């Protein structure tokens, strides 16, 4: 599966690297632009004009969201010319609007915002832009392109697509294969996108049928409870896609408690515990599709580049792009070592 | 999990002339009908499950699963039943479960093993209950407000302790307790703990002075005070008891999920209150039934199980769950009022 195991540089888009020779040729660069190693920021490292970046992030009540905040903080610390004004994380729309308004009043140079709800925070994004503060919109997208200068985020549809293709390739020689899905919070748009991508990928494999789907809540407790029920409901199936590695801790627990090992499991997001399980390879978890929290570090890089009116190294343009969608790479036993350092707890 | 029908101890303070045979018999019959109607709802659900998914639903594994999943919230509900019976409310149960579970898994996991985790979970639960009890009984705070404050701060502290990350348990003795090897005569240890807590709860509420005092405080606190009951101390004990149940539930949850997370126990307060109310405990206090509460929990868990087995999606599940709550309460009121 070279097309899934190959690592793609953040800014090279999704250009497929399929030729083995090219893959080998690239490896020397690849360790460098590894997101966690973080040795190659988007703009150059040379100190420039001092930039104050305002960061309004989420409440870190989940492993991935906590990793977002950590990534932003640690990346900002690397730059002598960057001052990070960070607000307390919040899941409350009204509170986050207030926090962003405070940052606008403080006249920060650039704003990085991961909104609790992208649609609900569009107005305050517009307000910042009108005040002359460029906004880097992180992950959950604002409703209007006018509300941000640059968007960077993950690819929920792509997660589903790549998980589906991975499972499809593993099961392509098996007649009448059965697949089940343990989804995340069903009232989030992103959950629907992940499921859509998964279903679309499976359409390429007529021998595979999705026989069940249950939504959990991105928590260990819900993952354990829903997975236990799914295992009881489906006495035999060949593969499971679980949307989130945090709830996957619970799902794996339920699988272990039920004593089942007759299928393969693919996770989602890229938690350290998932990487470790994939590396150990003694359970059902064989791979996970990434939704990298390192995007927060990249957002700081982009905000700094905006503040210093720089482009991005590796691209010919003078300006940073208006949107960047990260690639949801599949991490399995073959490439897990490369990603281990990016795993979040 | 069926308990013998409880004789209505609540008659003691409601109608001091409890020795009068007709009143007593009416009360017994009413309680009986209430329990029977709940059993009827449960039987109807079992029938639905058995008809829609005979192979999976009527399987021993599934019975074990349903009871295991009822255990954690069940233990919380037993404590909640006492608090509501006394005319109070405990909104902090879910947050206490979260705090106790993350505290036990962060502080105790690495060094102190099984006993450390168990001890920490229970102590944190009791400690939170103590704070609730002191604020309510001796600080004169309304239970709603005091436990709401505990909800917020315990969740905040749980988040601070974990930094948002999941605490994976590595102590084998804990993990083994959730495995099939640990089943006693086919019964998971978690279910045994739940049964034990239920039986003790039933005995305490129906057969002890403590139980009678609880009902009396809930029926009429002033009358209870005049009757010589130390109402404040009784209240303190009740929130301590609720906290203790949360600590035990947190330990069960650690065993069940193999981890501690600050999102644990999400919305337990609502589930526990709903189960108690459906079971026939009066929200205004003065009447409580452990049997009813446990049946309420089993009804909820069975519904969830049947939905999952039939692969219903969460939106349908939520709507149907709401409808079934309404139906259960309506059926119960109708049958209770006809006596």
Fill in the keyword field for this structure:
heterodimer; A: 345 residues; alpha/beta; six-stranded mixed beta sheet; elongated; disordered N terminus; B: 339 residues; mainly alpha; two-stranded antiparallel sheet; 76% helix; 1% strand
Percentage of residues in DSSP E strands of chain A: 15-25%
The secondary-structure element order of chain B is HHHHHHEHHHHHEHHH
Strand content of chain B: under 5%
- Run of helices and strands of chain A: HHEHEHEHEEHEHEHEHEHEHEEH
Provide mean pLDDT of chain B, rounded: 88
Terminal Cα separation of chain A, in Å? Answer: 27 Å
Q: Give the proportion of residues in helices of chain B.
A: over 70%
Query: Widest sheet of chain A: strand order?
Result: 2-1-3-4-5-11
Count of DSSP H/I helices of chain A: 12
Output the structural class of chain A: alpha/beta
The poorly predicted ranges of chain B are: 1-19
Architecture overview:
The complex is a heterodimer of chains A (345) and B (339). Chain A is an alpha/beta fold and 345 residues long. Chain A has helices spanning 2-5, 20-30, 63-77, 93-105, 122-130, 156-170, 189-202, 220-233, 245-258, 272-280, 295-307, 336-339, and strands spanning 51-56, 82-86, 110-113, 135-138, 150-153, 177-183, 208-215, 239-242, 264-269, 285-290, 323-325, 330-332. The longest helix of chain A is centred in the N-terminal third of the chain and has 15 residues, at 63-77. Chain A is elongated, with a radius of gyration of 20 Å. With 339 residues, chain B is mostly helical. Chain B is 76% helix and 1% strand. Chain B contains 14 helices and 2 strands. In chain B, helix 4 crosses helix 12, helix 8 (189-207) packs across helix 9 and helix 12 crosses helix 13 (290-309). Chain B is globular, with a radius of gyration of 20 Å. Classes of the chains: A alpha/beta (345), B mainly alpha (339). The interface between A and B is large, with 41 and 38 residues.
């Amino acid at each position: 599966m070279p097309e899934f195991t190959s690592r793609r540089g953040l800014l090279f888009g999704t250009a497929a690297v399929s030729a083995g020779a090219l893959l080998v040729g690239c490896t020397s660069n690849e360790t460098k632009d590894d997101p966690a190693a973080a040795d190659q920021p988007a703009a150059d490292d040379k100190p420039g004009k001092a930039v104050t970046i305002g960061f309004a992030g989420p409440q870190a009540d989940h492993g991935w969201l906590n990793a977002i905040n950590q990534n932003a903080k640690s990346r900002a610390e690397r730059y002598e010319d960057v001052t990070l004004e960070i607000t307390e994380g919040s899941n409350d729309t009204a509170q986050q609007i207030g926090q962003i308004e405070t940052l606008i009043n403080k006249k920060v140079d650039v704003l990085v915002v991961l909104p609790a709800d992208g649609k609900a925070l569009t107005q305050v994004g517009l307000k910042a832009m009108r005040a002359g503060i460029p906004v880097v919109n992180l992950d959950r997208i604002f409703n209007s392109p006018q509300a941000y200068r640059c968007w960077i985020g993950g690819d929920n549809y792509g997660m589903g697509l790549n998980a589906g293709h991975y499972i499809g390739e593993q099961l392509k020689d098996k007649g009448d294969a059965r697949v089940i899905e343990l989804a995340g919070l069903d009232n989030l748009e992103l959950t629907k996108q992940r499921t859509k991508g998964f279903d679309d990928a499976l359409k390429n494999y007529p021998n595979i049928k999705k026989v069940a789907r249950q939504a959990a809540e991105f928590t260990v407790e819900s993952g354990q409870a829903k997975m236990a029920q799914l295992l009881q409901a489906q006495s035999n199936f060949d593969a499971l896609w679980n949307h989130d590695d945090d709830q996957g801790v619970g799902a794996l627990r339920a699988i272990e408690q039920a004593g089942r090992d007759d299928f393969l499991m693919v996770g989602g997001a890229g938690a350290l515990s998932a990487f470790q399980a994939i590396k150990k390879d003694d359970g059902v978890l064989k791979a996970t599709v990434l939704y990298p929290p390192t995007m927060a570090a990249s957002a700081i890089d982009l905000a700094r580049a905006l503040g210093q009116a720089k482009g991005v190294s590796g691209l010919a343009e003078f300006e940073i792009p208006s949107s960047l969608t990260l690639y949801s790479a599949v991490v399995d036993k073959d490439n897990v070592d490369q990603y281990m350092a990016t795993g979040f707890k | 999990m069926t308990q013998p029908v409880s004789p209505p101890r609540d008659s003691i303070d409601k109608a001091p002339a409890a020795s009068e045979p007709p009143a007593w018999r009416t009360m017994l019959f009413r309680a009986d009908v209430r329990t029977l109607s709940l059993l009827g709802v449960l039987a109807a659900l079992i029938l639905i499950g058995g008809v829609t998914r005979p192979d999976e639903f009527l399987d021993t594994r599934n019975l074990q699963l349903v009871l295991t999943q009822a255990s954690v919230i069940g233990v919380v509900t037993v404590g909640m039943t006492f608090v509501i019976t006394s005319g109070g409310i405990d909104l902090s149960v879910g947050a206490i479960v979260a705090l106790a579970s993350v505290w036990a898994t962060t502080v105790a996991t690495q060094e102190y093993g099984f006993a450390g985790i168990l001890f920490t979970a229970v102590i944190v639960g009791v400690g939170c209950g103590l704070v609730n009890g002191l604020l309510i009984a001796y600080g004169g705070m309304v239970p709603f407000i005091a436990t709401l404050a505990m909800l917020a701060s315990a969740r905040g502290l749980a988040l601070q302790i974990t930094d948002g990350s999941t605490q994976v348990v590595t102590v084998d003795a804990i993990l083994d307790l959730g495995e099939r090897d640990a089943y006693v005569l086919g019964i998971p240890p978690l279910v045994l703990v739940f049964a034990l807590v239920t039986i003790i709860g039933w005995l305490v509420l129906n057969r002890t002075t403590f139980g009678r005092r609880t009902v009396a405080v809930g029926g009429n606190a002033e009358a209870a005070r005049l009757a010589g009951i130390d109402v404040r101390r009784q209240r303190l004990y009740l929130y301590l008891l609720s906290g203790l149940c949360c600590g035990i539930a947190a330990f069960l949850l650690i065993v069940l999920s193999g981890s501690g997370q600050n999102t644990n126990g999400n919305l337990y307060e609502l589930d526990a209150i709903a189960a108690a109310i459906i079971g026939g405990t009066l929200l205004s206090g003065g009447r409580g039934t452990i049997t009813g509460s446990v049946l309420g929990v089993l009804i909820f868990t069975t519904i969830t199980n049947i939905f999952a087995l039939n692969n219903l999606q969460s939106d349908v599940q939520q709507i149907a769950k709401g409808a079934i709550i309404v139906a259960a309460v309506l059926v119960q009121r109708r049958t209770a009022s006809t006596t």
